[in-house]
Amino acid sequence: MADSHGYMEYDFASLKKVQVLGQKEAIDVFLNCFRLKSEYSFKGMLEFDDLEEILVEDSYLVMNNEPRRKGKQIFFTGNVVEAKKDDLLFFLSEPIQRHDLIVPLMIVPVIDGGQPSYIVATQEDPIFEWFAAKEGER
Questions:
Q1: Model pLDDT, residue 136
Q2: What are the E-state strand segments in the chain?
Q3: Measured between alpha carbons, how far is 94 from 92 in angstroms, rounded to an integer?
Q4: The Cα angle at residue 54 between residues 48 and 56, in degrees rounded to 5
Q5: Is residue 56 predicted with pLDDT exceeding 50?
Q6: Tell me, what's the pLDDT at 9?
């Protein structure tokens, strides 16, 4: 969302990033999170204003949630970056205010070892889906 455009960028150009994952690592991380999301329980729909309370960790992996498919094979051609919570919320706020959240996203907390306890995803609407690990799977 560059100041001159105000829309959500596919490459997260205006998001203040802690790091940008390389292509191979981004593919591995995305495919793992995409698989996890399908195994987690859907907990509900959230509005942008609810995110601050739900996002309790300090850092998040933010990735384009647009896998490509060829038969049963899933491919990922997007971007994966790590960002601090406050920077992520700031990055999301402008395109949501302008009704221009055009990039589907997956937001996953950065944790040391193990699986994240939840995953947040959105499509092109500013409504966020909240998925949590089933009890005993964390």
A1: 55
A2: 19-20, 41-47, 59-64, 68-70, 73-75, 80-84, 105-109, 118-122, 127-132
A3: 6
A4: 125
A5: yes
A6: 66
Round to whole Å and give the CA distance between 110 and 137: 17
Torsion-angle region of residue 27: left (phi > 0), alpha (psi -120 to 50) or beta? alpha
Cα–Cα dist 129/121, whole Å: 5
User: Structure tokens of 88?
Assistant: 């992520």
The string of pLDDT tens digits covering residues 70-106 is: 888 888 888 999 999 999 999 998 888 877 676 789 9
pLDDT at res. 62: 95
Which DSSP category does 36 fall into? H
User: Which amino acid belongs to residue 41?
Assistant: S
